[in-house]
Amino acid sequence: MNIRLDVALSDITGLSGMKIMEAIVAGQRDRKALASLAHNRVKKSKEEIADSLQGTWKRENLFILADELNAYKAFQKRVLSCDSEIEALLQKMVARIPAGNCASATKTSGRSKRKNAPSFNVYKLSMEYFGVDLLSVEGIGANTVMAFISEVGTDIFKFKTKKNFTSWLRLAPNNKITGGKIVSSRTPKGKSIMANAFRLAANTIAQRNNGVLKKIFSRIAFKKGRPAAITALARRLAEIFWIMTVRKVPYQPRDEKEYELQARQKVIKNIRNKMNRLGLTTDDIVNINAL
User: Taking the model in full, what pTM does it have?
Assistant: First the structure.
């Protein structure tokens, strides 16, 4: 048909896209009338959307569109059915948890629901299952929490330390020490669904504009590259999950200014240590600049 609705709308399966496609299947061909179905919050203007709907309305292409639209709706119904079954099974698991290890959810998470998030209340499930709100961690979404519940669950209490947990995930570096010095520090290779979930969450944080976790990522990425920073941040998220669930400690994001001050003090300390090892003083630096 040569129409480019995907150019005007970032998500054609959203509210506006679905309305427009359903109208096309129903027989509407007026591009201005189709553009008027878009929500007012769409960034593109109605004229731009109308321009993307110019094309040839071939019968065979319209049949394919209708067929694929019906298939999409059918799969969405199957997803909702799976979500209902998963919620029922998880509620049975929650019912078997000792009363002292969980908590009731008395408020909502305050986050808007994402499109591909489960249909049930993951915040409530997190509170009832672990007694803490895992969604409060920046960059963590419902799918990460669901992966954590399904892949780890109450087995998290079997790990005595956060180091044990990150090692099991193959996110902790395998340090080789010779003569008191680390000569090799590589993260072991291996496949882990939960580790991949933490890496995806780390990648989400990397795309943020602010936050201490974002600053930690940027600092490591500058030194070692993006892949190493993703793994390091995934390990940090795994440690946060262990602390929250095992020790029942709510997540408290660090203050950015305080973090920057501590990072600056650490740099100054390292410089002083290097100067002491080399026997240098501030006068030596001044004399070098004078030369």
Answer: 0.70
